[in-house]
Design a protein that fits this description.
HIT family, subunit A, about 30% helix, 5 strands, 5-stranded antiparallel beta sheet, globular, alpha+beta, 3 helices
C-alpha cells in the first residue's frame, strides 16, 4: 500500500497541521477540517490503509475503541452534543473521499445539517435469508473454510 500524497499519512507524520485529541501506538484522532458540527473528529490508523480490507483486525478494534471513548467524551465536553454518529465510508461507491480509512465521530443535535438520504425498503424474509447466507459465505471465505 502506498501512502504517497495521503493527507492523513502526512498528519500522522506531523508534516501537516492537525488539532489532535488522541494518539496511541496505532491510532490518531484529530478534528475534521470540514466539520459537520463543532467537535467532529476523525479516527485513523497510523499505518496507511485504503479501505477496511487493508486494516489489521487489532488496529480496527483500536479505531473503534478510540471512537467509542471520544464519543462518550464529546457528551461531557460542553460542546453541543445530543447524540453521536459513527460513520465510515469504505470505497468510492460508499462516498469515501480520502482513501485512508477513517471513522468519523460526529456530535449530533436536533436540527443539525447532517443527513443520510436513502430509499429505505422492507425486504421479505426470503430475501433477508439469502442475504444472510451470502454474508455467512463471505465469513467462511475469510476463515478459509468452505461455505
Amino acid at each position: 500500500m502506498t501512502d504517497d500524497g495521503c493527507v492523513f499519512c502526512s498528519i500522522v507524520r506531523g508534516r501537516t497541521e492537525a488539532s489532535v485529541v488522541h494518539e496511541d501506538e496505532s491510532v490518531l484522532a484529530f478534528m475534521d477540517l470540514q466539520p459537520v458540527n463543532p467537535g467532529h473528529l476523525l479516527v485513523v490508523p497510523k499505518l496507511h490503509a485504503v479501505g477496511l480490507e487493508d486494516v489489521e483486525p487489532d488496529v480496527g478494534v483500536q479505531v473503534w475503541k478510540v471512537a467509542h471513548r471520544l464519543g462518550r467524551a464529546m457528551r461531557r465536553s460542553g460542546l453541543r452534543c445530543e447524540g453521536v454518529n459513527l460513520f465510515l465510508a469504505d470505497g468510492e461507491a460508499a462516498f469515501q473521499e480520502v482513501f485512508h480509512v477513517h471513522l468519523h465521530v460526529i456530535p449530533r443535535f436536533v436540527g443539525d445539517p447532517f443527513r443520510i438520504q436513502a430509499d429505505w425498503q422492507v425486504h421479505e424474509r426470503e430475501q433477508l435469508d439469502r442475504s444472510a447466507a451470502a454474508v455467512r459465505s463471505g465469513l467462511a471465505a475469510l476463515d478459509g473454510a468452505q461455505p
